[in-house]
C-alpha cells in the first residue's frame, strides 16, 4: 500500500465499486455481433416520447447556458401532475445523488442507515462510505422486505431507513397495509424513504399510496426516477417528494446546477404526457407476461414482480450461462454479486421481438444447442 493509500479512510480501503451492466457497444466489440438485446439494466426498451426528443433538439442549441438552478419550469410541470407544493419536491442528478444527499444530511459518525439486502446496492455503498453507517437486514423467505426485522434493527442511533418498493433486484413489494403497520412503529425522528423508482409500472391496487400516506406520516418521503418509464436514463434526473422541512434541509446541502439543462427540459415535457405513461405500463405488463410464460416453459423459476423485470433461476446450474447468453446476443444481469446465488439472473422487459430473441437464445443454451 502506498503512503497515499494509507491516508484513505480505513473503512473505504476494501470498498468494492458498483459494477454496472455491460453496455451493448462493449459486447459488440468483444463478440463481433451485429444484433444485441440488452435486458440487463431495467431500461425501458423504447426511446423517450417524441415530444421530448423534439424539445431536446431545440434545447441543444443552448448548451452554452447554465441550467436553471431553481428548476422553475420543471416545478410547474411537477406540481400540475402531483398533489404537492413547489417546496415539497427536490430534483437531482439521478436518484443516486438524492440518496447521497440524504445520507450526508442525516448521518454523522456513529449514526445508522437501515436498509434491506439484497436490494439496490447503492444503499450499502453510500452507508459504508459515509462513516460506515450501514445496517443491512436480510429479506424474508419470500424475498420481500422483512419489515419486522427492520423495526428490530432500529436503535437510538438510527437516522434513516431506505425501503426499495418494489424492490430491486427481486421485483417484490410490500402492501399498504404492511407498510402502514411498519410506519406506525417507526420513531418520528427517523426519516423513512420509499425508493419508488419503478412505481409507474405498478398495477397492484394494494400498493402503498404515497400521496395519502405522507399526510399521515411527516417522516416519510418518496424518491422517484425519470430513468425507467420515461426513458431518460442517459440524462440522469430523479426527484424526492417529501415535506417542506425535509426538502428545505436538502436544499442546503445540494450542489447548484445539479440537474442539467437537457435533463430539466426533457423531464418537463415528459411529465405532460401521463397518458403515455399509462400506455407504457400496459405494454410492460404484456412484456412481463411474455417473459414469465416463456421462462416457465423453459423450466425457470421467477418471483412475482411489480416492476419491469423478473428475478429468474434456471432449472439447474448451467456452466458459463451468462457468457453463453452473450454469444446468443442477449445481455442479462447475473445476481451472484447481489447475494442471490450463482446462476440466478435478472431480466427486464424489452420489445416483444427482443423478448423473443432472449427466450430463444436462453432455450438454446439450456438445451446445450449453442
Can you walk me through this structure?
The chain has 14 helices and 13 strands. It has two domains: 3-47 and 275-366, Aspartate Aminotransferase, domain 1 (Alpha-Beta Complex); 50-273, Aspartate Aminotransferase, domain 2 (3-Layer(aba) Sandwich). It is of the alpha/beta class. A hairpin with a 6-residue loop joins strand 9 (301-302) and strand 10. The mean pLDDT is 94. The strands form three sheets. Strands 2-8-7-6-5-3-4 form a seven-stranded mixed sheet, covered by helices on one side.
Looking at the overall shape, the CATH architecture of the largest domain is: 3-Layer(aba) Sandwich
The parts where pLDDT drops under 50 for at least 5 residues are: none
CATH class term of the largest domain: Alpha Beta
- Largest β sheet strand count, sense and barrel closure: 7 strands, mixed
Rg calculated over all Cα atoms: 21 Å
Count helical runs: 14
pLDDT averaged over residues: 94
Ends: how far apart? 45 Å
Q: Report strand order across the widest sheet.
A: 2-8-7-6-5-3-4
Order of helices and strands: HHEHHEHEHEHEHEHEEHHHEEHEEEH
Tell me, briefly, the overall form.
globular
Going by CATH, the homologous superfamily of the largest domain would be Type I PLP-dependent aspartate aminotransferase-like (Major domain)
What is the CATH third-level topology name of the largest domain? Aspartate Aminotransferase, domain 2
Strand content: 5-15%
* Count of the separate structural domains: 2
Percent in helix: 25-40%
The tally of strands reads 13
Structural class: alpha/beta
Amino acid at each position: 500500500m502506498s503512503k497515499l493509500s494509507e491516508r484513505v479512510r480505513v473503512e473505504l480501503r476494501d470498498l468494492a465499486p458498483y459494477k454496472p451492466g455491460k453496455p451493448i457497444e462493449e459486447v459488440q466489440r468483444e463478440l463481433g455481433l451485429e444484433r444485441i438485446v440488452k435486458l440487463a439494466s431495467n431500461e425501458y426498451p423504447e426511446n423517450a416520447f417524441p415530444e421530448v426528443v423534439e424539445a431536446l433538439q431545440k434545447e441543444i442549441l443552448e448548451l452554452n447556458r447554465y441550467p436553471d438552478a431553481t428548476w422553475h419550469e420543471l416545478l410547474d410541470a411537477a406540481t400540475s401532475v402531483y398533489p404537492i407544493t413547489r417546496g415539497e419536491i427536490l430534483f437531482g442528478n439521478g436518484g443516486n445523488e438524492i440518496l447521497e444527499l440524504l445520507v450526508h444530511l442525516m448521518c454523522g459518525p456513529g449514526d445508522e442507515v437501515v436498509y434491506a439486502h439484497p436490494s439496490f446496492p447503492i444503499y450499502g455503498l453510500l452507508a459504508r462510505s459515509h462513516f460506515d453507517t450501514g445496517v443491512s437486514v436480510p429479506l424474508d423467505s419470500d424475498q420481500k422486505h422483512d419489515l419486522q426485522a427492520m423495526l428490530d434493527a432500529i436503535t437510538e442511533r438510527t437516522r434513516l431507513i431506505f425501503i426499495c418498493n418494489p424492490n430491486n433486484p427481486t421485483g417484490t413489494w410490500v402492501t399498504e397495509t404492511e407498510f402502514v403497520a411498519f410506519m406506525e412503529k417507526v420513531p418520528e425522528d427517523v426519516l423513512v424513504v420509499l425508493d419508488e423508482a419503478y412505481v409507474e409500472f405498478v398495477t397492484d391496487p394494494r400498493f402503498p399510496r404515497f400521496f395519502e400516506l405522507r399526510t399521515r406520516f411527516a417522516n416519510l418521503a418518496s424518491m422517484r426516477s425519470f430513468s425507467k418509464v420515461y426513458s431518460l436514463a442517459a440524462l440522469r434526473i430523479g426527484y424526492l417528494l417529501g415535506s417542506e422541512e425535509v426538502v428545505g434541509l436538502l436544499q442546503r446541502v445540494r450542489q447548484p446546477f445539479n440537474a442539467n439543462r437537457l435533463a430539466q427540459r426533457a423531464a418537463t415535457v415528459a411529465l405532460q404526457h401521463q397518458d403515455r405513461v399509462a400506455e407504457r405500463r400496459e405494454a410492460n405488463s404484456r412484456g412481463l407476461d411474455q417473459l414469465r410464460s416463456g421462462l416457465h416453459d423453459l423450466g425457470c423459476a421467477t418471483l412475482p414482480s411489480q416492476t419491469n423485470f423478473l428475478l429468474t433461476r434456471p432449472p439447474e446450474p448451467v456452466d458459463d450461462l451468462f457468457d453463453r447468453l452473450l454469444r446468443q446476443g442477449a445481455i442479462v444481469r447475473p445476481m451472484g454479486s447481489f447475494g442471490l446465488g450463482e446462476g440466478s439472473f435478472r431480466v427486464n422487459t424489452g420489445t416483444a421481438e427482443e423478448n423473443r430473441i432472449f427466450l430463444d437464445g436462453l432455450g438454446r443454451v439450456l438445451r446445450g444447442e449453442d
